[in-house]
Amino acid sequence: MEIDPFIFRLSIFILSIFIGYYVVWSVTPSLHTPLMSVTNAISSVIIVGAIIAALAGKTEAIFNSSSIFGFLAIILAAVNIFGGFLVTQRMLQMYKKKKDKK
Amino acid sequence: MLSANLSAIFYLISGILFILALRGLSSPDTSRQGNYFGITGMVIAIIVTFLSVGNFSTSLIYVLIFLLIGGAIGAFIAFKIPMTAMPELVAGFHSLVGLAAVFVAISAFLSPEIFNLGVTGDIKLASLIEMSIGAAVGAITFSGSIIAFLKLRGIMSGAPITFFGQHYLNLLLGLGVFALIFYLCISQLGSIFWILIAISFLIGVLLIIPIGGADMPVVISMLNSYSGWAAAGIGFTLENSALIITGALVGSSGAILSYIMCKAMNRSFFSVILGGFGADSSKQKTEDKKEKPVKSGNAEDAAFLMKNASSVIIVPGYGMAVAQAQHALREMVDKLKKNEIKVSYAIHPVAGRMPGHMNVLLAEANVPYDEVFELEDINNDFANADVAFVIGANDVTNPVAKTDPQSPIFGMPVLDVEKCKSVLFVKRSLSPGYAGIDNELFYKENTLMLFADAKKMTEDIVKNLE
């Protein structure tokens, strides 16, 4: 009997939850706001699905009913990717130690 | 055109880079590097997707254009946004992830063949369930985040909105979602799919409106978690490991943050979700509190007290963010330090409107992060400190949480501010905080109330420290 590929994906999913659990507990509380903004940025990897939806359709028409949702999703995800990573970067730049004050 | 196996490996790599991005946040030193890992992971995922779709026709240009439009908007927001507006920014961003998940799910439902999920009217059962869950959770995330955004932005009142039978309605709608998914699987009807999304939008709204302003740290973390589960749902539909890994990471991250926030308020996650906390605060206020004597002072008194102290602990709260007083505060602390006074900052986990809110604001004002302490690390120091300077915080300093079992905040971990030799309390009036209860600290012998706007008062103190 063969194992359904779904089970493998489920295994990845569950193991990732455990990784997330341990990694996030080790995040220092003072960085919880950057944690939220960066998790927000990486969850925009959903753009992968958006690109497939926008590109992979039948080629004769670029914009059809299903690809238009893909294009819209690309915009939304792109706002998040750029916005999320840049604002995280901006925040992290501000965290300084006592010594390196000008 | 990239083979499916090769692209799967690249997706795995970007998943690992995302894990490293979160890992970096364990200390401020490694955090910036972590962020670059995250960016690299994202770039890999996007390029691999381009290559594996392999369709370099004219539509590719459109994808790039749309990517850049979104990117430009995102970058503009990221550079313009003031640090005090971070909670609403994060809520707004969550709504976008939710909506993107809904759009991808719709697209997959309309043309399942491009995702290899079967054909319209005969979509594979597992895929249909996965995309329904992705769409439903995405829709809840979207509308819930919009409400959270409106509340945080002050466009909508932060007061909880409750009505009779609210919880039953939510329960009914929740069960309705499951029934609809079940029926969708049997019928494959498009109309069911649209109703499912519409009801999920409604649930998102109903879920967040009963939750009040100061419970926002829990709400934002919860929506953060939801956005992750939505991404994971879509990841299962698209059989994409990068999405599954990321969704799981984000989902558990948000869940942990919600847990930490609930614990810091000594409330169960369930009671926060049911909402309505502090709704009847107006009734309790009319008690006999005016009779109790309160000592109030001015900036001069405050400056005098602090000048003669040898150690000062600063307790910032949401009021500091509202008044934008963090820069003035830093100036004040600089003056104190020049007088050889030891200054540290004490931060309660739920100070502000999102996890870590105060830390970011202090960092923005160039406060070194090693002067900023969490509740459990600094609470014993209050007994040895001369002055506690409470600026914009209230409930998190209220000693009744330790003494009065009748109090709604009893059992909540609080900062032991009252143990200080003297307490300076900057506040606009004697009005109670979010929990709707009077703060005993106001009437203590050693408390001096400074009635003023937090920023104005801090600036005046700075002048008096000259």
Blueprint of the fold:
The complex is a heterodimer of chains A (102) and B (466).
Chain A: H1 5-25, H2 32-43, H3 47-55, H4 65-94
Chain B: H1 4-23, H2 28-53, H3 58-80, H4 86-110, E1 118-119, E2 122-123, H5 125-153, H6 166-187, H7 190-208, H8 216-238, H9 241-264, H10 269-274, H11 281-284, H12 299-307, E3 311-316, H13 318-323, H14 326-338, E4 342-347, H15 357-364, E5 372-374, H16 375-378, E6 387-391, H17 400-403, E7 422-427, E8 447-451, H18 454-464
Parallel strand pairs in B: 3-4, 3-6, 4-5, 6-7, 7-8
Antiparallel strand pairs in B: 1-2
Helix pairs in contact in B: 1-2, 1-9, 4-5, 4-8, 5-6, 5-7, 5-8, 6-7, 8-9, 12-18, 14-18
General description of the model:
- The complex is a heterodimer of chains A (102) and B (466).
- Chain A has 102 residues and is mainly α.
- Helices cover 71% and strands 0% of the residues of chain A.
- Chain A has four helices and no strands.
- In chain A, α2 packs antiparallel against α4 (65-94) and α3 packs antiparallel against α4 (65-94).
- The longest helix of chain A has 30 residues, at 65-94.
- Chain A is flat.
- Chain A starts with a helix and ends in an 8-residue tail after the last helix.
- Chain B has 466 residues and is of the alpha/beta class.
- In chain B, the strands form two sheets. A six-stranded parallel sheet of chain B has the order 5-4-3-6-7-8. A two-stranded antiparallel sheet of chain B has the order 1-2.
- In chain B, β4 (342-347), α15 and β5 form a beta-alpha-beta unit.
- The longest helix of chain B is centred in the first third of the chain and has 29 residues, at 125-153.
- At the A-B interface, α1, α2, α3 and α4 of A face α1, α2, α3, α4 and α8 of B.
